[in-house]
Design goal:
Layout lengths: L1 H44 L6 H15 L3 H16 L8 H23 L2 H22 L5 E6 L2 H4 L2 E5 L18 E6 L2
Antiparallel strand pairs: 1-2, 1-3
Helix pairs in contact: 2-3, 2-5, 3-4, 4-5
């Protein structure tokens, strides 16, 4: 009889614990969903980084050059020049505005040349502009992780750099001819 009562008591205890866990689960899911909702609401309220349109267009140029697509690079170069031209520099510290204005003007000029050039010239302007974009990211900040990549073979062994959102090397300076030539020099984080 004692054994039966103990077994019955043990079974009831297990059943009530199991039942209690089932009742708690919806509350935990609700809390988790509410927490995710708050997180989404918070991220929706954060302002876009000033360089977002510039970086988007820059990366479109890079991807077009990786794929040896002259027309795509030309279109993206025009978009990049426009994004740089609409960058409101008054929102930054006054002691940085002159420096930013100079960098933006040079990078915008490269974007315009990319929009009008043959692919070999597009690549040369892209490489020259990449250091300007990196300088802008250093001063203004970024909305994404970027990989500063470098190819030692570019320009007759002088080397060339670019920024990418992917760690894997896809070389825009050579395209299909030397697609994987290069290495990650630095990681630029948010």
């Amino acid at each position: 009889m004692k054994t039966t009562l103990l077994t019955l008591g043990f079974a009831l205890a297990i059943a009530s614990c199991s039942s209690a866990k089932k009742e708690e689960q919806p509350a935990d899911n609700t809390t988790e969903i509410a927490a995710k909702g708050e997180q989404t609401a918070i991220s929706d309220q954060q302002p876009e980084n000033a360089l977002t349109p510039v970086l988007d267009a820059y990366l479109m140029v890079k991807d077009a050059l990786v794929n040896d697509h002259q027309e795509g690079a030309a279109n993206a170069g025009a978009a990049l020049a426009a994004a740089l031209g609409s960058l409101d520099l008054t929102q930054f510290a006054s002691d940085k505005q002159a420096e930013l204005e100079e960098i933006v003007e040079v990078a915008k000029n490269h974007g315009e040349h990319i929009s009008e050039s043959e692919i070999s010239d597009q690549r040369a302007h892209f490489e020259a502009m990449s250091s300007d974009i990196k300088d802008l990211v250093t001063i203004i900040g970024t909305d994404r992780t970027l990989y500063h990549q470098y190819c030692p073979m570019y320009s007759g062994g002088k080397g060339g750099m670019w920024l990418s959102v992917n760690q894997e090397i896809r070389n825009p300076l050579f395209g299909a001819r030397m697609l994987k030539c290069g290495k990650v020099e630095d990681v630029i984080s948010l």
